[in-house]
Design goal:
By secondary structure, the protein is of the alpha/beta class. The chain has one domain: TIM Barrel (Alpha-Beta Barrel). Helix content is about 45%, strand content about 15%. Strands 1-2-3-4-5-8-9-10 form an eight-stranded parallel barrel, surrounded by nine helices. It has a two-stranded antiparallel sheet with strand order 6-7. Helix 2 packs across helix 12 and helix 9 packs parallel to helix 11. The radius of gyration is 19 Å and the shape is globular. The model has no long low-confidence stretch (mean pLDDT about 90). Keywords: Glycolysis, Lyase, Metal-binding, Zinc. Its EC number is 4.1.2.13. Catalyzes the aldol condensation of dihydroxyacetone phosphate (DHAP or glycerone-phosphate) with glyceraldehyde 3-phosphate (G3P) to form fructose 1,6-bisphosphate (FBP) in gluconeogenesis and the reverse reaction in glycolysis.
Length: about 325
């Protein structure tokens, strides 16, 4: 059984991106894999008055089911409204691999989709992206595509090397595909193991500035933008876990991008780290605990608290809409 996303209380991303670009912030795009994560995300955003995009990768859909994810998104919308908040909520397919996956998600109730043709050559990327746009726009579903390649690993998305987006290609790509937003590669990286300690990650803001000049006012997206917070990698190791030492993208670099043309910033790894660290802490300090509500509840609250800080420090989206409270 499928749904029209509007019947679930969801919105596409067009208006929220226009508002974000006009007011100089970025919309948080947080990945989720279960009910606790979805509630952590929407409660954090509702309390802060921030718009939000709930994201599902193909791996998350396989885990939850494409029929379940939209209903969790509806529950998230209902939670925000019950908190007295009017924040817009979108449900987005992250790194959609093909048109068939896109069709499945739109029929299930997704309001936004990404087609990732970045591993193809330029002409083929345009072709596959336009096919998705032509289909999705029939249902007023917004479409994101990607130009350039991010290194790293995220679920089924893997790349050994990084290829910066070529500003000379963006205008032609956007014009020929008709996409609603464009993910670019300017120095971010997928996964938890982005950079080694001692490195000083910097975004190629000069490339971003040139892209903004070529397609003024067009919504830009940054993937792979987790900070890999040390407090959570340390906590995971403290309570028996193993995480390689790594650092992510500094919040200060992302905030510069968010105040420019970047309308959407993706964060997945940070949420996973916060969630896992809290579970390990509960089980490590209370070895007799076997009530899932105790450790999953703690994980939800940790993830929520951390994302509230990100909304201020990275996205700058606090107060863009009416704030709510539990």
């Amino acid at each position: 059984m499928g749904y029209n996303y509007r019947d679930l209380g969801l919105t596409n991303t067009k208006e929220m991106f226009a508002k974000a670009n006009k007011e100089g912030y970025a919309v948080p795009a947080f990945n989720f894999n279960n009910m606790e994560m979805a509630m952590a995300i929407v409660e954090a955003c509702a309390e802060m008055g921030s718009p939000v995009i709930l994201q599902c990768s193909k791996g998350a859909l396989k885990y939850m089911g494409a029929d379940v994810a939209p209903l969790l998104a509806k529950a998230a919308v209902d939670r925000a409204r019950n908190m007295g908040s009017d924040i817009p909520v979108a449900l987005h397919l992250d790194h959609g691999p093909d048109l068939e996956t896109v069709k499945t998600c739109i029929e299930a109730g997704f309001s936004s989709v990404m087609i990732d043709g970045s591993h193809y050559d330029f002409a083929k990327n345009i072709q596959v992206s336009k096919e998705v746009v032509d289909y999705a726009h029939q249902f007023d579903v917004s479409v994101e595509a990607e130009l350039g390649v991010l290194a790293g690993i995220e679920d089924d998305v893997k790349a050994e090397s990084h290829t910066y987006t070529n500003p000379d290609e963006v205008e032609e790509f956007v014009t020929k595909t008709g996409v609603d937003s464009l993910a670019i590669a300017i120095g971010t990286s997928h996964g938890a193991h982005k950079f080694k300690p001692g490195e000083d990650p910097k975004l190629r803001l000069d490339i971003l500035k040139e892209i903004e000049r070529r397609i003024p006012g067009f919504p830009i997206v940054l993937h792979g933008s987790s900070a890999v917070p040390k407090q959570y990698t340390d906590m995971i190791k403290q309570y028996g876990g193993e995480v390689k030492d790594a650092i992510g993208i500094p919040d200060s670099e992302l905030r510069k991008a968010a105040s420019s043309a970047v309308a959407k910033i993706n964060v997945d790894t940070d949420g996973r780290l916060a969630f896992t660290a809290a579970i390990r802490r509960v089980l490590g300090t209370s070895p007799k605990e076997f009530d899932p509500r105790k450790y999953l509840g703690a994980a939800k609250e940790e993830m929520k608290a951390y994302y509230k800080t990100k909304i201020v420090d990275v996205f700058g989206s606090e107060g863009a809409y009416k704030k709510g409270s539990l």
